[in-house]
User: What shape does this take?
Amino acid sequence: MPKGVIAIVAIVSFAIWIAVSREAVKPSKEINWRKMITLLFAGILSASVVTISLFQSLPF
Assistant: This one.
């Protein structure tokens, strides 16, 4: 993947994890669980893409 695409995915991933943390600090009765699960899935997926691409770019 081009470095520009990875940078964009990393920024989006960062924003997703900020949204997850904001949702997580709410009292449990106010948490929108559907939103929380969706954000967690998107965060894990985007973080995995960034991590895999960074490991692939390492010289061995």
Remarks:
- DSSP finds two helices and no strands in the chain.
- The chain has a mean pLDDT of 94.
- The two ends are 18 Å apart (CA to CA).
